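Worked problem 6 (solution included).
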Amino acid sequence: MFFTSYDIGYAVGGSGLILKTVDGGGHWVAQTSGTTRTLFSVHFPTVNVGYAVGEQGTILKTVNGGDTW
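Solution. The predicted structure is:
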């Protein structure tokens, strides 16, 4: 789980699951990751650029705050 601000955060999990919240974790919305691999970790070095990593060398990148991966 990684928060880019008090309100905006991301979580990852099995079957390519990426969840995003824009209300501090009150509600979570599934994002389309394009993979079925288990994702282990997510990190955003900037508000818009983020990476999710997972099994079998899976690396996903977003450049628009998680709208697309």
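Discussion: Residues 2-62 form one domain.
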